[in-house]
Amino acid sequence: MPPVTTAHYVMLSAILMGVGLFGVVTRKNAVIVLMGLELMLNAANLAFVAFARHHGNLQGHVFTFIVIAVAAAEAAVALSIMIALYRLKGSITLDDAQELKG
Amino acid sequence: MPAIPAAIPFGALPGAPPLLAAGGAGAIDDYLPVLIMLGFGVVFAVGSLTISWLLGEKGRKLRAKDTPYECGMPIQSHAHERFGVKFYLVAVLFILFDVEIVFMYPWAVSWGHPDPNRGGAPAMGLLLAEVAVFVAILVAGWWYVVKKGVLEWHKED
Amino acid sequence: MDDASFWLGGLTAVTGGLMAVTRRNAVASVMWLVGAFLGMSVLFLGMDAGFIGVIQVLVYAGAIMVLFLFVIMLLKLTPAGLARVDRPKMTIAGILAAGALTAILCAVAVASPAWTRDGTDAAIRARTGTLVQGRTAAVADRLFSDHLLPFEITSVLLLAAIVGSVALTKRKV
Amino acid sequence: MAYVKVKRRKLTFAERTYVAPIAKGMVTTLKHMLQLGGTERVTMEYPEQKWKLPDRYRGAPVLVKDAAGREKCVSCSMCEYVCPPRAISIIPGEIDGPVEKAPKVFDIDMLRCIFCGYCEEVCPEEAIFMSEEYELCGQTRAEMVFPKDKLYAMGEKFGRDGRTKDPVKKYDRLVSEAAAQGLDLTK
Amino acid sequence: MTPPESAAAENVLETRTAPVAATPDMVSRGFDPASGHMLLNMGPSHPSTHGVLRILLEMDGEKIVRCEPDVGYLHRGMEKVAEVYGYNKFIPYTDRFDYLAPISNNVAVATAAEKVCGIELPPRAKALRVIASELGRISAHLLGVGAFAMDIGAMSVFLYCFRERESIYNYMEALTGARFTVSWTRVGGLSRDVPPGWLDSVKRFVDGLPKRVERDIEELLTTNPIWVDRLSGVGVIPKDVAVGYGLTGPALRGSGVEWDLRKESPYLGYEQYDFDVPVGEHGDAYDRYLVRVEELKQSCRIILQAIAKLPDGPIDVQDHKLRLPQKRSVLTSMEELIHQFMVVSEGPELATGERYFGAENPKGELGFYVASDGTGKPRRMRVRGPSFTNLSCLPYVLKDAMLADVVAILASLDFVMGECDR
Amino acid sequence: MAQGRLATVSWGESEEDGGAVLTTVDSLVNWARKNSLWPLPMGLSCCAIEFMAAATSRFDMARFGAEVARFSPKQADVMIVAGTMTYKMGEAVRRLYDQMAEPKWVIAMGACASTAGMFRTYPVMQGIDHIVPVDFYVPGCPPRPEMLINTLIQLQKKVASERAHKGLRVANLKAEKATA
Amino acid sequence: MDAVMNWFGTPVGSAVVKVLVVGNVVPLLVSFLVWLERRVAAWIQDRTGPNRVGPFGLLQSFADLLKFIFKEDVLPGHVNKPMYLLAPALAVIPPLVALAVIPFADRMMIADLDTGVLAVFAFSSIGVYALALGGWASNSKYALIGGVRASAQLISYELVLGLAALGVFMITGSLRLHDVVTDQANGLLIDGTLRDGFLPKFFDWNIWKQPLGALLFFIAALAETNRAPFDLPEAESELAAGYHTEYSSMKFALFFLGEYAAMVAISGLFTTLYLGGWTLFGAENLFAGTPALQTAWQIAIFTGKVVFLLFTIIWIRWTVPRFRYDQLMDLGWKRMLPISIGWLVFTALATWAYAQHVR
Ligand code: SF4
Ligand code: SF4
Ligand code: SF4
User: Fold this and answer.
1) Domains in chain E: how many in total?
2) Which residues form the domain of F2?
3) Interface with chain E: mutation pick from B76, B78, B89, B152, highest number of E CBs within 10 Å
């Protein structure tokens, strides 16, 4: 097997990004969509750290750290919105949310 | 001015290099034993579940065994009913505060170890100021939560 | 070691992620995703980002996913509930979109010699002098000196999130 | 009158912090652990040690015979009548000799018996007694219905000096009282 | 060899794997499945329902919206038994009412029967009955407090309480021959007098009891903030509500109502003793706990006084229509033998009349309404079980309570299902 | 019949079982089972108080490892029915019995559980063996705590003489597969 | 043969050996602990406790364990099977893994991580899933309420745990647990001179420098391990057996095991953070000449401290009543959280002042 290079990490990151995207696009359940999003964020983190290693500095690490924090905040708020929505509508499929718009 | 980095209160000597602290090795080497332990744990758990499945007494299938315990009565309504939103709020607050605490840990390391040799370490005064702001915001969040009565269990949300 | 960790972590992460987005049962999704994050953590460790690896477990697997689990338990998202892939058109679209994205990114990665040829350990060490070690103290020093502002902004963001979620979920504000 | 309001003490700050009262409680439990101050261990190692039963203890009911080995019970059925759970069933025997009829069948269903002692209380012949036996258990119901001979055997074994072993010997007394009047009942 | 019952059991095993549900149809009783409320079934086999009480809770999240107690899991047809078996044979059954203080029930039912025909007991019998029923009260309150503590998690206190109760069991055993199903009283007297040395050892025990209670119970609970917080303000029953539901005993006095039959309508010479009756102020679980602990100590006082001035004399009314004759005389005198047969088979002859008598038992007012037609068996005997009445306030106290408080509230009411369902 | 302590009923380790010799596996399994009889307390009425007393300081059932009362039937080994069982209660008892995991035993503690004792009345089930198989009947109303502990010891003996390995799933895997 | 021996010399090999040793000692320790719990409970309650199985009843836990193995393995039809099976496994793995980071003698630990305590927290945070899943998958009301409450309790006190421990690291300046221990073993540095000797070394323990922190940590640790007075998840009498109501045989035993293993782990962590780990005021170097003996001696010291802590935890359990759910949450969020933040600020200011003073 060839030695693992930055390219490998980037490819892995891309695959994970794809998986996340797949979840986001196909799933109707908002909670799972959100999970897909978290997966995509993580894929990005992976790339960050890979680049940090590639460039021999810690910027990526710091950045990832902060991204994780932001992800937590994002998850909290997004799920809160869902709860509020659920209380309003009694379900949380995304289509219902679209109705809300109109 | 003592020879030892002074800012470590009550006196700490830099510890001797631990045996397994792999000098030049990467993080994965440090963590490998943990992974091994994890593997052991998995084997242990799965193993004991399997063993008890194999060695357990063969029981008869009874309809009653497939109903949950409800003090000996038939179930009254489904278990997965709606829960107080309180629990959810606790979880939300937990992750937010948890993240804040996670930020504090590296800060504590910087704070307790302002080794001049390490280069680029922030000064103590700066650190103090930073954390003051941070803690103030943390406390503000906490105060808001308490004031909103989120943690009052006797009141419905 | 690094290579093994890549394959192990990568496999876990991808499997976990795939399972997570395709499970009918939302709770199963959460648990698969937890698995994916553990794999991801192994990947970080493989890149000598020990601190990030641990934080990944602590925050993602140990906190954020707990929140997801709570929400699912709270909202009765049982298997018979809502969690279904039931939009065939969207499924195809999803596969196409995801596939395209992945393919493009992979192609870029493979095609870039900077990442392949110069991306090995030896090459990086030769280029930067040393392999960067994401130890706590190092990350901390960077965070509290150069990246002061993001740090404080994050705290404000967290505060906003607290206020936001409380305001959103509490009925009587 | 003598109604008093219960006092509800306000907890002091030290008590409010949980630490002080818990520490106090821990001292108490430590005393118990170390058996200080009248808190000795009271466990009785049961199968080896046994509780000394008081004289009046009401164990399983048993039948006794008199000194001459004659059945005292006359099947008067008083006990059968009074027994609240109706644990006793008697089939009277034939009248035989100077004493009245002895029971042909005398069963006590030990699983029914509630050890109330009413049978002992009412028996006009002092034929049935509450023994010291309490270590009974059985795997079937049938084996716990004790027939007459078993009850007599238990009477031999578990009768107690104060009560069953030395009951008022009615028959003997009747004999002696009659003898005083010049009659000989033994014939 | 195998009795038919066991054979039946085998069959049953094969055929009855899933018993048919026989639960109340909650929907017909106003439960709305769409409300999102949860129905939680507590009991009959539940660690904290003290026997076989069953409560159906309709809950909104953690809050109880409605509560339906379901009693009768221990209904044993006691009143009917009394009508068939007569007064004396009913006494063992009264042991099984409030089985935490059987001797108090014994005393109550015998006194009730005596009241019907206006029998006056000899003073020694009265005093002994007082001693015994106060011992019963101590033992009941010890278990009440101990079980309360156990439900709140202080397991050790429960065992300390039981340690003290064991001593009471010993005295009961020495006095009556059984640990707690004593069957001690008879209409018109007692079955046995106290054995030698008994009074002294009871005195010694009662002397030291308050101190031990302070050490083992109060020290661990009364000022423990966990305990106080769990109890105070929980399950509040205001005065008027308590009176309205007809609560009695510590449950009533915990709400601050000054009512104790030993003071209000003294029987068995309770007026001769000097004792206090504790009452609460707030009517919450903590008050009920305090009242019990204090009552326990007051009982010790009563016992000491009663022992101090215990008169000599007979323990029975000397009436062969009521009490069994002396065994010795039965054995020798034909007349006495006939009396014996009559009393056993006909039962004690009481006057004709109807009368209610309530005794202040550990759980509250244990009342007997006796309708006597002059024979040895009551025409009708109605039993007023304090636990039943005390439990009737459950829907009130549990409404709007939190699920977590249910245990504390139940334990503070301190009921016994044997007496509730009878 | 009437020799010796009445309680010591001997179990047919020899004749009826065809002289079965207990294997080492059996003795190991039985050793574990008999020393860890966790009760499922069915404290229905007065006898429950004596059941509790058996667990308290003086009698201390814990000495035999049997103090861990589990209210969840799935975790208990021996159901101790202590008290009067009414027909109304019977259903619940039976359901709990069914929910217990094998191997399980039942002790009918007290006159009421064994035969209904003094309650020959309409609401009371005349003995719990109408709905659950009983291993041991304990007379008494209530039985002394010692009596219960004695029964527990007898039950231990009974457990020790059982043939355990035949019941284990490993021994039945093939048969299970065949039926499936 | 040599190859095998050599492999044991490699980091991986030695790690495997240690894992096997620790992994097998911990269940042993747990069984001892269960026995201790039952005996201590008995002593407190004037009883004898299990004394029939083996000497002093020491084999009691093994009998229980074996019984569970041979008990019918009920897989009820009403549960969500994969999650139902996953929960007990998740209950037992995290504490085991957390133990891998704790040093039990000088340079003796399975993994010496530079994230140290964070790693411990990270692993133990996975334990929440055991309770939540156990309750949820059981599909039973008692279990569900129990599980949700238990997990809410766990996460709430995780915060306090984290905040309380922070003070130690502000002093030590390293998350590495080995450093934390060595930092407590030097003696006090007063006015720039290092005071050696028994007393300074005694007062070098973090429990003296961080008394309130230690107390908060200890209380939070009780809550994290579901011990009295925080043992509501499984002992709250209104919920029967709580989240593991529906579990039988080995699955239940695994919950049990996991809980006690968590107790061991958290006691080990407390010992490391506040009680000087394997050190004993210099006495830990008694056998400096013979490394093997020295290590054994240090392990003994460490184990002694841990057992003492475990004993204290048991002792508390049999003394106090239990909190109510809302009181517990109030205590965590409204009292311990602000107090620990306050303590944090105090520590920061104190160390800062000290640093200024020294400079
Ligand atoms: S003791 Fe009572 S229940 Fe037993 S046989 Fe005698 S009268 Fe009947
Ligand atoms: S035992 Fe006594 S009461 Fe019973 S039948 Fe015999 S003589 Fe009569
Ligand atoms: S046997 Fe006696 S003590 Fe036991 S439940 Fe029945 S009546 Fe009560």
Assistant:
1) 2
2) 1-34
3) B76
